[in-house]
Amino acid sequence: MAAGEAPIKQAVKWLDDQLADNPNADRVKLIDEASRRFDLTPLDTDFLYRHLAERKKG
Q: Which residues make Cβ contacts (< 8 Å) with residue 26, sequence separation at least 6?
């Protein structure tokens, strides 16, 4: 992780890496873990849910 990088960017990268390793992982659990791991705000966490929902469609 780059120093000074926004926690939300770190969380998105971490989630993408986790899903690349295990595409069938429980996304809700991953988002919950990312939220704690990167100390995200509720708005950031909300963004992650939307990010994964859009990604799943594609």
A: none
> Per-residue pLDDT tens for 41-56?
999 999 999 988 877 6
CA–CA dist 9, 12 (Å, integer): 5
Q: Is residue 2 part of a domain?
A: no
Question: 1 in a domain, yes or no?
Answer: no
For residue 32, the enclosing domain spans 7-57
The tally of domains found in the chain comes to 1
DSSP string, 3-42: TT--HHHHHHHHHHHHHHH-TTS-HHHHHHHHHHHTT--H
